[in-house]
Amino acid sequence: MARTRVYRNGILDAEDFPVADVSDHLADTAATVWLDFCAPTAEDLAAISEELGLHELAVEGAIHTQERAKLECFRAHSLLTAYAVRMNPQTGHLRTSELAAFITDRALVTVRKDEHFDIDAVVHRWDTAPEGLAKSGAGFLLHGLLDYIVDGHFEAAQVLDDQIEALEDLVFNDKPDHDALQRRSLHLRKSLVRMRRAVVPMREVLNTVARPDMRLVDETLAPYFHDVQDHVLRASEWTESLRDLITTVRETQLNLQGHRLNMIMKKVTGWAAIIAVPTAITGFYGQNVPYPGAQQPWGFWVSASATVVLCIAIYALFKKRDWL
What we know:
Blueprint: E1 3-8, E2 11-15, H1 22-26, E3 31-38, H2 42-52, H3 56-63, E4 70-73, E5 78-87, E6 94-103, E7 107-112, H4 119-127, H5 138-171, H6 178-199, H7 202-209, H8 222-285, H9 297-320
Parallel strand pairs: 3-7
Antiparallel strand pairs: 1-2, 1-3, 4-5, 5-6, 6-7
Helix pairs in contact: 4-5, 5-6, 5-8, 6-8, 7-8, 8-9
Keywords: Cell membrane, Membrane, Transmembrane, Transmembrane helix, Transport
GO molecular function: cobalt ion binding; cobalt ion transmembrane transporter activity; magnesium ion binding; magnesium ion transmembrane transporter activity
Membrane topology: Multi-pass membrane protein
């Protein structure tokens, strides 16, 4: 079921009225209309497509999923495609919710691709906006929508940053679980890639919306849109830095694995060298030919002493060079 609202002269006049009444409200030049659809079909949008002069390609793009975040300008309207994101702090799983929005001079039509997009949070921002801001018409509605989406990007970047910091601590554990670390790092990297696809294009979207020829941002809204642009820039830069950070964490993990393997091989080789000494001596004395001290007590004590002394000497040498 579609949700509807109409503002007149910056004041909420009516809501949840039938879609068929939209044309009556738009007949008043002081009215600004908002409509919201969730997972609509082409037939659902046909009711307002002709009324608002929506281009058929724009309607097709609003119905299809997995569109790139962008702002397309048509003759009578613009089509916004954006993604709201939410990061689970416990699992690090990123959930994206796609949204399309038709923007005209006096109307905003939001098309949610699924129910995960929290449209109530957007409505709450409109209701708690500073007094008089709603007089800016469709630009006011668009600001609340973009502000909610961008704030979600910023919060997701914060959660992802915390997840990567926790991963760094796990990397430097004395006995790290390498399989778990690899799964965790690859999972976070996958979430980061998905978030980057949603966040980075929003810089271009905000720059286009703020252009004077779009006539969506008046003097009253300009400071608020500049604030959203600043948040977009910070979230985008944060996302880029997180990509470098998680790459560094992965490389550090591999380097530490290689270092630990080298240490193990060095110690094993050192102990093998020590064990080789008694093996060589006892092997020499075990040959079936006469040798000095053969079948004599002093011969046994000489071989045993040589074994102990040489093993201690080699151990001390390796320890001094930090090979053991």
